[in-house]
Each structure stands twice: as structure tokens, then as C-alpha cells.
Amino acid sequence: TAGARPPYWRPDYRRILQELGEERMHSLLMHAGLQAAADEAWPLMFEFIAKTRSDARFVIWLRDANDWARSAWNFFTAPNTWSRGGAYANRFFLLSYGSCRIADSNPKTLAKVYRAHTKAVLEYFHGPTASAALRNRLLVLDFTEQLAGRKLCQFALGNHADCSKHTAL
Amino acid sequence: VPPIIYLGLQKTATSAFANFTSLLGLVTVH
In what order do the strands lie in the sheet with A138-140? Predict the structure, then answer.
């Protein structure tokens, strides 16, 4: 009843916010002194964060979906102490990818979810109905490019003099 | 500082983002 499903394959954004608690997340975003955030479940709450904090800005790197799926699959099924050969189970995995364990999914499904998530982000910030203000709040950044660090610094801090000392990420 | 949020899913350089924003002196939740 929850999680990424055909035909759209999007992570279950609504359910994730509901389970985390909208009121609690609102309070956290407004009062916890948050300056930067990455990893689950932040990417899955982009619309809520954008509406709650009109000053918040966002970054995304658009990887090749199949490369990402292979990387995620290999990492989460590896026999390391963290993923324990794919035994590691997580509620967010279910709500994001449709299976509690990545090992119960497959790279093709993961790639579909990846494409659906990036599409949802791009539609929201850069789609035809997005305002100019909303457009400027998302930086699409290739993390492998030569000056990725400088660009991210300038996006995060404005034209801060210290940004010139950064080059790659 | 207005918050900056990385929207890549896991294994899409989340650590690189968190390390870099911490290097910039930002309180980074990872």
C-alpha cells in the first residue's frame, strides 16, 4: 500500500512526510538551525521544505540512472558490516524504492525510481509552471566537473571571497 | 545562512555534499 509503484515509480513523498510527522518536520525546519542537509529523508521532502522555508535552496546531481542503480545495488547488497550482504532493511527503502531491502528489488526498478525522482524534482523547480523565483532555488550541478566545488560554494554562500579557493568537489 | 538541501538519492554523492558544506562551515545534517 506504500512505496514506489508503477506506472510513475516515484518515491512515496506524501507517505514519508506523513510518517515523519508534518508538524514535527515543520518545527525542525523552522527552529533547529539547519544550514545544510543531505541523505534520506531530506531529498524525499523537497516540496514540503520548499514551501515551509521560502529561503531554502536545493542542489541535485543528475547521474545516469543505470549507473546509479548499479552503484546503489552493489553498495546495499555488499557483504560489509553496514549492508550485511543485503540483509539491511529500512522503512525509507520501502517508501522510496518499494522494498524494505534493496536486495529484494532489482537494478532496473531502482533506475525507474531514480528517473522518477529526478523528473519530479526538475518538474517542480524547472517545469513550465515554475516561477522565476522557484527556478533560481535549484542548482543542477555535475559533481564531477572541474569547478563543481566553487559553484556549490557560491550557491550556498553567495559570492563569498573564500569560494575562489575551491575548485573540484 | 538560508538552508541548502541536497536532493540526490543515496549513492549520488550525498557524502561529498555533506563533507563539502561542512568544510564551508555550515551545520550539515547527514
Answer: A138-140, A57-60, B4-6, A36-37, B28-29
Interface A:B, Cβ pairs < 8 A? 126
Residue contact A35–B5, C-beta within 8 A: no
CB atoms within 10 A of CB A128: 5
Rounded Cα distance, B13 and B10, in Å: 7
Whether ipTM > 0.85 holds is: yes
Q: Of B4, B14, B29, which is closest to A57 when you measure between CB atoms?
A: B4
Note if the bond before A41 is cis, omega within 30 degrees.
yes
Provide the shortest C-alpha distance from residue B9 to chain A (in Å): 7
Closest by CA position to A16, among listed A35, A38, A34, A43:
A43
Please indicate whether, in this complex, the C-beta atoms of A68 and B7 are within 8 angstroms of each other.
no
Is B27's CB within 8 Å of A96's CB?
no
**With an 8 Å Cβ cutoff, are B22 and A29 in contact?**
no
* Count of CA atoms in the C-beta half-sphere (13 A) of A111: 11
pLDDT digits (tens, 9 = 90+) for B3-18: 999 999 988 888 999 9
> What are the backbone dihedrals phi and psi of residue A85, each rounded to the nearest 5 degrees, phi first?
60, 30
Q: Which of B3, B9, B24 sits opposite A34 (nearest CB)?
A: B3
What does the mean pLDDT of chain A come to? 93
Whether residue A53 is predicted with pLDDT greater than 90 in this model: the reply is yes
